[in-house]
Design a protein that fits this description.
151 residues, 6 strands
Length: 151
């Protein structure tokens, strides 16, 4: 069972690498990552300098959004949907990630294991830690939203 991780990025070079690193640290082996960039980091060559650039599981795509699309659409969902409209996502399960979020290393494993136990599930949601990064670089978890059971 393949997991497609769709990650939308827009001009956050200080944290984007952490989001992508959290995908690379997954314990579940069968995944692909589709990084959809607004063009800001892509055009600046940000991804070309990445150590994972040659990892075949990761595709970096420039979104080709325009000023007009930015005025008409919320860009993160539009970019996520482009992955389906263009046929880029090939996984059996899909995980969404924004450039300022990170995944725990067992996230894909947890999702696939749960789905195998509940194959009729149409959407899976997990607990979420809420964190903050202060200007001096200090990180802290300041809260959490817990998944309480089947919905």
């Amino acid at each position: 069972m393949r997991v497609s991780c769709l990650c939308v990025c827009h001009d956050k070079p200080d944290v984007t690498h952490e989001a992508i690193a959290s995908i690379l640290r997954q314990t579940y082996p069968d995944w692909e990552a589709i990084i959809v960039d607004s063009g800001v980091l892509y055009d600046a060559g940000y991804y070309e300098r990445s150590t994972w650039r040659d990892d075949a599981r990761i595709k970096v795509i420039r979104s080709h959004e325009t000023v007009e699309t930015r005025l008409k659409h919320a860009m993160a969902p539009w970019c996520f949907n482009e992955c389906f409209r263009k046929g880029w996502a090939t996984g059996d399960l899909v995980v969404y990630l924004c450039d300022d979020d990170i995944l725990y290393p067992d996230a894909f494993d947890t999702f696939t294991r749960f789905y195998r136990q509940h194959p009729d599930a149409q959407a899976l949601y997990a607990s979420q830690d809420v964190g903050v990064i202060y200007p001096n670089g200090w990180h802290a978890i300041i809260g959490e939203r817990r998944a309480q059971g089947m919905g």
